[in-house]
Amino acid sequence: MQIIIQAQGLTDYLFMTTEQVRIQQIHFLKKIEDLLPANTSLVHELADFLEVSTDSAYRRMRGETALSIYEVIQLCEHFKVSFESIQRNDTGIVTFRYTRMNGTLDSFREFLLALLHNLRLISSAKTRYIKYASEDIPVFYNYKYPALSAFKMFYWMKAIMNIDCFEGKKFSTSVIPDEFKEIGLQIAHQFMTIPSIEIWTDTTILSTIKQIQYYRESGQFESDEAYREVCTALRQAIEDIQRQAEQETKLSTQASEAKNFTLYHSDIEIANNCVLVCIGESKNVFLGHHTFNTIDTPNAEYCAETETWLDNIIRKSSLISGVSEKYRFQFFNRMYQEMDRLLAP
Length: 345
Description:
Elements: H1 2-14, H2 18-35, H3 42-50, H4 54-62, H5 69-79, E1 97-98, H6 105-124, E2 128-133, H7 139-142, H8 146-160, H9 178-192, E3 196-200, H10 206-217, H11 224-247, E4 261-265, E5 274-279, E6 282-289, E7 293-297, H12 300-315, E8 318-319, H13 325-343
Parallel strand pairs: 2-3, 3-4
Antiparallel strand pairs: 1-7, 2-5, 4-8, 5-6, 6-7
Helix pairs in contact: 3-4, 6-9, 8-11, 11-13
């Protein structure tokens, strides 16, 4: 997949005019700058990484000296950006990348580490936010609650990835490696530092409930205690999200990051998880893929169209964070009723 992305971007790059190359190079380096922590200088990063003088780095930033193909490749690999960052956006072609899975524990570990890496990049950026249209409960919340995190990982690795070591096993939190649960907690922590605008529907919680119901009805829980532990963790997650909506602030965030959570309720059905990540002037779209994985693209036109789509849904939705106390209570109460049915004998 990465080879396809690089080949498409490289082809466009080679056929640009000198002025197009200069403009795209400036934009490309600006995207990298947006990824850097607030106290990091792009000129010094470039000078150190490319082993050039600061004056040469400045000339590259201004587009006066063209980056070589080798330098572009090295920068893309080092800063984890795509060649699509330098290709034209008027071709009607959008390329995506994804984290490859091969049905092993190591593969799932790499998936978790890639997710953590991306969140750290977003969290460390000078300006950043996420817009999230939620078919399911945003995946990052699951990782905050050990029992819920373990259940989700078990479900994904057993039912979706068919990892051999889970064959014939029933669920308990102990079947998931402690390393995975620790990475999950770090993922949740990073997400809590990033401002997010989320769009939920009345069905957002249902997929998780159906997964729990299926495992209960098919005897996949090791014990009633393991089952109730997951149900309790799910309820705790929803109660915490309700508190976030009341306070307009993610829990466990710094005072300086107050008012970093906005929640909307939409009557329009959301058919797939769609996440728009904004880092400075750069944007990426992540789409749900193979149940829990994602494909993503930085294509500027596609990102702009996606943000327009998200904003249209928001305009037709009801704001339930900070205001609309009665509407918010009714929305969350419907979720609690679904969870109460889950625990019914």
